[in-house]
Amino acid sequence: xxxxxxxxxxxxxxxxxxxxxxxxxxxxxxxxxxxxxxxxxxxxxxxxxxxxxxxxxxxxxxxxxxxxxxxxxxxxxxxxxxxxxxxxxxxxxxxxxxxxxxxxxxxxxxxxxxxxxxxxxxxxxxxxxxxxxxxxxxxxxx
Length: 142
What we know:
Oligomer: single chain
Mean pLDDT: 91
Structural class: alpha+beta
Shape: globular
Distance between the termini: 37 Å
Low-confidence stretches: none
Strand content: 25-35%
Number of strands: 8
Number of helices: 4
Largest sheet: 6 strands, mixed
């Protein structure tokens, strides 16, 4: 029998990290009544669909490596998800983008103005405060 060895996340390539994060997030969402269906291609901007047991809630989710916004997702009713340490955040793209723009956090940046995309490389307290209501509590969290 093989000895079980945890994988070192840092040693995974980009695609492996995406698969890893999908599996981890799907497990967390299962605790809240969601079944996650991975898509083979980005359907309407989504990497996966999260279907709730209520039969009425369906979330189109784009999985990212960090807090991110992109004009190509605007108006598509997309939720963004990313992992930060041991926590996941799941936020409605357009709602949080409106708040970030209102606060002037990305407006005027070359990345947003030229490319229409912006990724926060880290999460200072200001961004953590904005994200607090979108943090998915892990089972057993206080």
